[in-house]
Amino acid sequence: MDKMNPGQPAVDGEIEKRLSLITLYDFYGELLKDNQKRVFEDSILEDLSLGEIAEEIGISRQGVHDLIKRTCRQLESFEERLHLAERFRRVKDMVEALEQRMQDDERFPEAEAGEIRATLQEILEEL
Fold first, then answer.
1. Is residue 119 included in any domain, yes or no?
2. How far apart are CA 127 and CA 122, in angstroms?
3. Cβ atoms within 10 A of the Cβ of 64, count?
4. Is residue 107 classed exposed, middle or buried when 0-12, 13-18 and 19+ CB atoms within 10 A define those classes?
5. How many domains does the chain have?
6. Rounded to the nearest 5°, which phi and psi values hold at 16?
7. Beta carbons within 8 Å of 71's beta carbon, 6+ residues apart
8. 64-75 pLDDT, tens per residue?
9. Kind and range of the H or E element at 15?
10. What confidence tier does 115 reach under pLDDT thresholds 50, 70, 90?
11. Residues 107 and 74 reside in one and the same domain
């Protein structure tokens, strides 16, 4: 329960956790086994229930739960070792700060700013 709003679930933390897992999946999903990818996608991305997934793949609800937990731990382990998502966030923050500085600086010619913004976006796409 949310301490600020009694009677309301603390969904902010759950949403933040889910978004974090989706980000990790974007970076490391291809390193997972096919069954891990399928169950993760069904659970986290498609928001299917444990029962729906269990019926679909022919295992118990507990088996689905365990597989999801194991997959999430594995994604977090990849990030602990490789830090790709963390690096991406840092670079993205730096790019956004540069874009903001260009926007705030009235002396900065708009034509140059457009070229620089395009280059910064290319950098992010290459990450």
1. yes
2. 9
3. 23
4. exposed
5. 2
6. -60, -45
7. 32, 36, 39, 40
8. 999 999 999 999
9. helix 11-28
10. confident
11. no
